[in-house]
């Protein structure tokens, strides 16, 4: 509901406004009344108000003085509607100079009030979307550690002060990277649930397309107010989600930091929590602190690593899966701490690099080393669940075999033509590999060699160019542009657009129109 305050020194005017229309039917709630500007300020300072209907001529403080005070002192996005008589037109003109666009002549007519309410409702929705975009952008900047003072101030205005902060990621385990409409609804609903539980909810701040869900900046006050522990609070959150959706949800809680300015450390630690998914006793929730406290113990068996690499060389999926599971079981049962787990993973990667020496072609060697450097981090650290680790080695084996065969190098033109024609559809290297019978990781290497960027960035670049055309040539809503260009969800589209162009899609559209090129 849009919160309304009625301000007029005439009681019968205020009562008449109340009775003239069914405010709730229009989406409004009258939260209070005031007979002058001074009393109105007292209400505004204590209550959330979106729209103020205010008379111009009042004792103690006029309507114009009230508007000026709110604009200069309260710094809140409050819409004003001036109530004026014919004799007060000069005052109304002054109000317009103060960026107040709405005024009504007394006596107020029902049709006029109805029109104003419809107009304000639409403007309020647009403003909410813009404020949400601004807030999400600020949160993204803060959690990535690339924020300005304005970004920090924006985030602080939406959260409760605390000296204990934790980034928590709630992820849909089986969500598609190109969200279907019902999955977009799910992500929006997750944010709504988080807002209800915690006062705020934001999109996942990862730039990886495979991760979908919502996130929150957790502070103890959120669960302590209901006498809950952190685990109990997150359990309740998961149950609420499971009640509405059939997907499996995974919660990753990062490290606890002392200030919002350091939340980026907690955000980064969530990546470690993902890597340790298989080591957690509670598979629905993974806490960074639990995994970080593991004891130092022995390394993975070298013979197990030999078996895994042999399966990779043979490109045998079943053997790879069995060997990878054995290696992962060794990590799980050894109670290794984070440092030793990291060292063991790097040792396996080093052994993979040793396999590169089987090639005489230095170009092939460089390609595989780049693949290991780029893909290993994504699969073994970013998405490090057991099945992801198995997939990494299986993909690497197929890639290794593909490079050795030296076939399919001339197929890129055909694939590229398909991508440019179907960019708005669900496209991934894996789906293209299956369609054109080429190893997906090898295909990714071919794209990077030709365009000097990874396929994901190439596809996003193509989609962003198409999105710019729609922003310039049409009035299509942002969420529709996100759908029509293949981004799926509007939040992800806006985030990508800002990363590349430095402004939001709406800002780009307005800038384009102001330049005169849109005429």
Short description:
GO terms for molecular function: DNA-binding transcription factor activity; sequence-specific DNA binding. It is found in: Cytoplasm. This protein is of the alpha/beta class and about 525 residues long.
Describe the structure.
This protein is α/β, with parallel strands linked by helices and 519 residues long. It has helices at residues 11-20, 37-46, 63-74, 89-97, 110-143, 149-156, 181-198, 221-224, 230-244, 263-275, 288-292, 302-314, 317-334, 338-355, 362-382, 386-405, 412-421, 429-436, 440-451, 455-473, 478-484, 490-501, 505-514; strands at residues 2-7, 28-34, 51-55, 79-84, 102-105, 165-172, 202-203, 213-218, 249-257, 285-287. The chain has 4 domains: 2-128, Rossmann fold, CATH 3.40.50.2300; 159-292, Alpha-Beta Plaits (2-Layer Sandwich); 302-405; 413-426 and 441-514, Homeodomain-like (Arc Repressor Mutant, subunit A, Orthogonal Bundle). The protein has a 5-stranded parallel β-sheet, sandwiched between helices. Strand 1 (2-7), helix 1 (11-20) and strand 2 form a beta-alpha-beta unit. The chain is elongated and about 90 Å long. The two termini are 38 Å apart. The model is unreliable at 177-181 (pLDDT under 50).
């Amino acid at each position: 509901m849009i919160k309304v305050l009625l301000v007029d020194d005439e009681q019968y005017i205020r009562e008449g406004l109340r009775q003239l229309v069914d405010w709730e039917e229009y989406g409004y709630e009258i939260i209070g009344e005031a007979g002058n500007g001074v009393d109105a300020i007292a209400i505004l300072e204590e209550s959330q108000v979106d729209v103020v209907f205010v008379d111009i001529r009042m004792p103690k403080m006029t309507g114009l003085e009230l508007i000026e005070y709110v604009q200069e002192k309260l710094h809140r996005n409050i819409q004003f509607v001036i109530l004026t008589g014919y004799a007060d037109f000069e005052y109304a003109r002054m109000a317009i100079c103060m960026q107040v666009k709405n005024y009504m002549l007394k006596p107020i007519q029902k049709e006029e009030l109805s029109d104003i309410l419809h107009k304000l409702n639409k403007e309020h929705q647009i403003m909410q979307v813009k404020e949400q975009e601004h807030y999400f952008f600020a949160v993204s900047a803060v959690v990535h550690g690339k924020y300005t003072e304005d970004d920090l101030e924006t985030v602080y205005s939406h959260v409760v002060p605390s000296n204990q902060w934790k980034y928590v990621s709630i992820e849909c385990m089986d969500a598609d990277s190109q969200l279907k409409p019902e999955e977009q609804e799910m992500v929006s609903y997750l944010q709504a649930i988080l807002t209800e539980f915690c006062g705020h909810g934001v999109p996942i701040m990862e730039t990886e397309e495979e991760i979908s869900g919502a996130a929150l900046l957790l502070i103890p006050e959120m669960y302590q107010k209901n006498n809950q522990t952190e685990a109990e609070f997150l359990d309740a959150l998961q149950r609420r989600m499971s009640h509405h959706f059939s997907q499996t949800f995974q919660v990753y809680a990062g490290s606890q930091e002392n200030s919002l300015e350091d939340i980026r450390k907690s955000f980064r630690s969530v990546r470690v929590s993902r890597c340790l998914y298989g080591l957690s006793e509670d598979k629905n929730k993974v806490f960074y602190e639990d995994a970080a406290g593991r004891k130092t113990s022995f390394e993975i068996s070298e013979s197990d690593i030999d078996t895994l690499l042999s399966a990779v060389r043979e490109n045998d999926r079943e053997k790879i899966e069995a060997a990878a599971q054995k290696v992962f079981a060794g990590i799980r049962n050894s109670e290794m701490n984070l440092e030793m787990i990291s060292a063991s993973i790097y040792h396996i990667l080093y052994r993979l690099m040793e396999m590169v020496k089987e090639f005489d072609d230095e170009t092939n060697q460089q390609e595989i080393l780049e693949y290991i450097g780029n893909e290993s981090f994504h699969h073994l650290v970013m998405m490090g669940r057991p099945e992801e680790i198995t997939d990494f080695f299986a993909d690497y084996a197929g890639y290794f075999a593909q490079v050795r065969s030296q076939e399919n190098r001339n197929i890129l033109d055909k694939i590229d033509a398909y991508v440019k024609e179907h960019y708005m559809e669900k496209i991934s290297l894996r789906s293209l590999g299956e369609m054109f019978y080429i190893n997906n990781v090898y295909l990714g290497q071919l794209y990077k060699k030709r365009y000097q960027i990874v396929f994901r960035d190439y596809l996003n670049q193509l989609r962003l160019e198409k999105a710019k055309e729609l922003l310039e040539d049409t009035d299509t809503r942002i969420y529709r542009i996100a759908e029509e260009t293949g981004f799926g969800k509007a939040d992800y589209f806006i985030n990508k657009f800002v990363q590349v162009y430095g402004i939001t899609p709406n800002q780009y559209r307005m800038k384009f129109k102001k330049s005169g090129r849109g005429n």
